[in-house]
């Protein structure tokens, strides 16, 4: 079954909280296993000895060869004895940002959102601990979690489990108990999982779905006519990506140099910039194998100058914005970016303004300079989140761009970018070929804005990004 067809079927079905959607975590919502990231971090920090690591690996292998698969989980949990609960929570949050957020499957996210739009109760049901499930659930807007709960005494983990390890039948029991306690009709509810051990859990729901299943689960799905979803894995970087990235850097520099030479010959820096920026950005994207699919491109030109704001997840975003905006614009960045060697070429041509948020006086002066440039016909490109987000969900928007638009009397134009993080994740260095969707929304008139309403306005504009990403315009 195609994930897009599934989303359409969900949205064509019944609404209401009497229907639930239960999602497994590892291998279903996320690619791979979240526990692997915790183990690697502990090994790197020498919190797990060689003997314990070897015993854990052998136990896990034994479980896959017919032994008790829960023994590896029990052994891993017992190794946490003596760890502070707060420390483990911080570890879970850090690893989510650094490692796990980028493994959330886009198709799984879309399915979760479809259920939420239909008013269904969405539940994350997993044998993993709350340290692993909590950050993923929060990112996806999932309020209810069924997971393996760890015993804590005086803020310290005992290495024991509260209740049962939610693997196999105990997980199915937890799902059925949740349904009874919350008035959920399991016969009309959905289940999503990938593991052979999840057959009892899926069989408890009226609409079970096997996600990239193992052999036993696939056989069960075929026998009972359950839909099988084979979701795309996160894109992997290969030789083509590495060569494309190097070529993109060369193309970016070549375009900027061409613009600089033209500007010097004509003694017109602005003309050189207006040639060099689109040439550089287009060349970089083309060589890297990145295509842009733009919706609402006419809105780029409806009101210039303007403040163009974009959501920010990838280092590709400024290049994408440059290719979309084309000419007569500059950028705004945080002061720390001034030391980034990747900003050197852009600084020479775009002459961006760097804002030090720790220095209120400098920030106000920088905004005043930008306002003057806007009045002279230069548009501004800015990412109001202030930093790259680890997930597609937009972060909180800062008010600087909105103050600037009010002072200069120009509109704000939202530019929503989708998929860039899949091609170049926040911490990645290699660009993967693919297509990035860009939606330029209608310019927003700021002439009647007042400072007292700014908090509400910023929230409403951010919601435009959330809504567009959730329901992309056709």
Secondary structure topology:
Layout: H1 3-12, E1 20-23, H2 34-44, H3 50-64, H4 70-78, H5 85-100, H6 106-117, E2 121-129, H7 130-140, E3 144-153, E4 156-162, H8 169-182, E5 190-193, H9 199-203, E6 207-211, H10 215-224, E7 228-229, H11 239-266, H12 269-288, E8 290-295, E9 307-310, H13 317-325, E10 329-334, H14 344-350, E11 353-355, H15 360-375, E12 379-382, H16 400-408, E13 412-418, H17 420-423, E14 434-440, H18 454-470
Parallel strand pairs: 1-2, 1-5, 2-3, 5-6, 6-7, 8-14, 9-12, 9-13, 10-11, 10-12
Antiparallel strand pairs: 3-4, 13-14
Major sheet strand order: 4-3-2-1-5-6-7
Poorly predicted regions: 53-67
Query: End-to-end distance, in Å?
Result: 22 Å
- Kindly report the name of the CATH homologous superfamily of the largest domain: HAD superfamily/HAD-like
Output the CATH class name of the largest domain. Alpha Beta
Tell me how many strands there are: 14
CATH topology of the largest domain: Rossmann fold
Kindly state the percentage of residues in helix.
40-55%
- Assign the CATH architecture of the largest domain: 3-Layer(aba) Sandwich
Total discrete domains: 2
Q: Tell me the β content.
A: 15-25%
Any idea what the radius of gyration is?
25 Å
How many DSSP helices?
18
Overall SS class: alpha/beta
pLDDT average, as an integer?
85
Most strands sheet: 7 strands, mixed
What gross morphology would you assign? elongated
Name some characteristics of this structure.
18 helices, 7-stranded mixed beta sheet, elongated, Rossmann fold, alpha/beta, single chain, Glycerol-3-phosphate (1)-acyltransferase, 474 residues
């Amino acid at each position: 079954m195609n994930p897009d067809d599934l989303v359409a079927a969900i949205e064509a079905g019944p609404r209401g909280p009497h229907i639930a959607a239960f999602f497994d975590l590892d291998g279903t919502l996320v690619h791979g296993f979240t526990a692997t990231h915790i183990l690697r971090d502990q090994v790197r920090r020498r919190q797990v000895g060689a003997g314990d690591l070897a015993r854990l690996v052998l136990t896990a292998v034994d479980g896959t060869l017919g032994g008790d698969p829960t023994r590896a989980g029990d052994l891993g949990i017992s190794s946490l004895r003596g760890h502070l609960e707060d420390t483990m929570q911080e570890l879970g949050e850090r690893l989510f940002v650094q490692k796990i957020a980028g493994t959330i499957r886009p198709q799984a996210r879309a399915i979760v959102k479809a259920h939420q739009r239909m008013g269904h109760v969405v539940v994350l049901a997993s044998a993993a601990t709350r340290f692993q499930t909590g950050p993923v659930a929060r990112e996806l807007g999932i309020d209810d979690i069924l997971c393996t709960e760890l015993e804590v005494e005086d803020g310290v983990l005992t290495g024991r489990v509260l209740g049962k390890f939610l693997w196999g039948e105990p997980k199915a029991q937890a799902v059925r108990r949740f349904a009874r306690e919350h008035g959920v009709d399991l016969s009309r509810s959905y289940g999503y999982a990938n593991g052979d051990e999840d057959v009892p859990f899926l069989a408890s729901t009226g609409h079970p779905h096997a996600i990239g299943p193992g052999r036993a689960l696939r056989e069960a799905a075929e026998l009972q006519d359950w839909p099988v979803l084979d979701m795309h894995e996160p894109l992997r970087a290969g030789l083509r990506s590495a060569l494309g990235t190097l070529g993109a850097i060369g193309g970016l520099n070549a375009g900027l140099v061409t613009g600089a030479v033209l500007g010097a010959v004509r003694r017109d820096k602005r003309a050189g910039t207006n040639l060099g920026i689109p040439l550089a950005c287009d060349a970089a994207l083309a060589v890297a194998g990145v295509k842009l699919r733009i919706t609402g491109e006419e809105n780029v030109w409806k009101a210039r100058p303007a403040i163009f704001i974009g959501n920010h997840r990838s280092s590709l975003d400024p290049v994408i914005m440059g290719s979309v905006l084309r000419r007569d614009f500059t950028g705004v960045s945080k002061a720390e970016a001034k030391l980034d060697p990747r900003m050197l070429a852009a600084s020479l041509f775009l002459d961006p303004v760097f804002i030090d948020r720790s220095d209120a006086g400098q920030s106000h002066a920088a905004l005043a300079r930008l306002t003057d440039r806007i009045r002279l016909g230069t548009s501004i490109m800015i990412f109001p989140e202030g930093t790259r987000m680890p997930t597609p969900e937009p972060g909180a928007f800062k008010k600087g761009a909105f103050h600037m638009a009010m002072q200069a009397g120009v509109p704000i134009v939202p530019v929503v970018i989708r998929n860039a993080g899949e091609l170049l994740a926040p911490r990645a260095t290699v660009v993967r070929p693919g297509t990035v969707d860009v939606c330029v929304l209608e310019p927003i008139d700021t002439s009647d804005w007042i400072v007292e309403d700014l908090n509400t306005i910023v929230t409403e504009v951010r919601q435009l990004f959330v809504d567009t990403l959730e329901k992309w315009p056709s």
